[in-house]
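Inputs:
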Amino acid sequence: EPEVTQTPSHQVTQMGQEVILRCVPISNHLYFYWYRQILGQKVEFLVSFYNNEISEKSEIFDDQFSVERPDGSNFTLKIRSTKLEDSAMYFCASVSGAGNFYEQYFGPGTRLTVT
Amino acid sequence: AQTVTQSQPEMSVQEAETVTLSCTYDTSESDYYLFWYKQPPSRQMILVIRQEAYKQQNATENRFSVNFQKAAKSFSLKISDSQLGDAAMYFCAYRSPTSGTYKYIFGTGTRLKVLA
């Protein structure tokens, strides 16, 4: 069964450094998302991406964040200058766009630790 | 804005017993979608069960069923005949039909432990 994959599983970086989190959504899916979960808190929506552009972003998704789908398969989240409070689990998800539930398929997550 | 609340950070159940995980939400919309996702340790979230708000009948998937109380804005998950493999983090999620992006709003999750 097709799965969403994410790399790396764990990324440790120093404050101020740039990080890129990578996701490979399920092929033929049309909608893509990034969520994050700070330890002990709820999973929060960051951004949605459709038709090669951002369709919605949350207040968390400020100028330090960007997303890209460079080659039609990968979907990346870049944080330009990481802060300690960016430490979290980051989940990628995709939606096929078929049916009416538009259920999301999630990747296993990338744990980002900013020191 | 919609919110989702899971008031039980952790629950335990004996193998073969039944457990109910609670979820409440707040919304002014009359139609929406609700989901329960399971996240095993170090694995991705997978869909357990889903419910359309306009359907009065509670959804059922094998040992998993929901008790959907629309007026009370409650969407609890019942797991019957609990198995060791049910041990996981369970997330309740809400999706608005008016969101053109189909994003989810999540609760904080409930960690379920299954005791042998």
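The CA atoms of residues 48 and 54 of chain A lie 6 Å apart. Flag for discussion at group meeting.
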